[in-house]
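Worked example

This section walks through a single chain of length 268. The input is the sequence exactly as stored; nothing has been trimmed or padded.
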Amino acid sequence: MNNDNLEFLVDNLARHGFQHPAIEQQLKTKMTLGVPEFEVPGMKFTFGEDVVIYAAKFKLGEAKGDSEAIYYLNGFKADITQQNGKNQKAEFSLYKQQGFNVNQMHKLMVGRPVYKIPRGEEGRWAKVDFKNTNDEGFARVRNYYDGTTGFNLERELDKLGIPFANPKDKANAISDLQNGEIINTSFKVDGKRETYNVGVSPQIGGLVVYDANMQIIKQTNTQTMEMMTETGKTQGQKNDKLPDQTMQMMDSMNDDKKEGKKQGRKAS
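Given that input, the structure is written out below as tokens.
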């Protein structure tokens, strides 16, 4: 067994929030046997009334040159039982040995989005799609990329006009939302200042404002849409003239039709 490889795996699990003497012992046993793929199951966490049981997945890589093959952390499985008895499970992959930590995966398991910027990659919001499962019944993670959604968290917060006391409070609110939290704050809605809950909805590219009972009362949305008329003009424009390129194309089509009629008369 490669002791450096073992230490690497133990440290990586710790970075993701998994630390326990039994983990190292299970790793030693599996690595000594040399199995190509294995799991360390039964890592149980309690979050209030939620119980989440995680399993870490490991896979043996390929040997390179004179170097022996080593094991890598290959992802996590999570199985949650919530206060209401609802049970759901999901699977989380890693990118360059980095993934969601224990707390972030819990937020994802209760339907909250979490923001990540993988090293050297585009930032994205992740959300578990419980309607999309693999052959084992584990839900998959759906990503909403910054370049696709155009969603900017700070800009959407500014739309709500939340009176943050200082820049640090605003930065903390942004960090909490990125980690799947719902923040509680006061601001005006329809001219009335009250305390509201605010969460992220990456699929609409905006924020969702909830009342004390977590009922939606307002949404912000980055995306805007304009309806086009059949002529390709935005509704509400007064100039009905078609673009020059379109006029040229229509003239060319008419000339072809005229030429075709002439040839038809000659043939008869």
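What to look for: Confidence is low (pLDDT under 50) at residues 231-247, 256-268.
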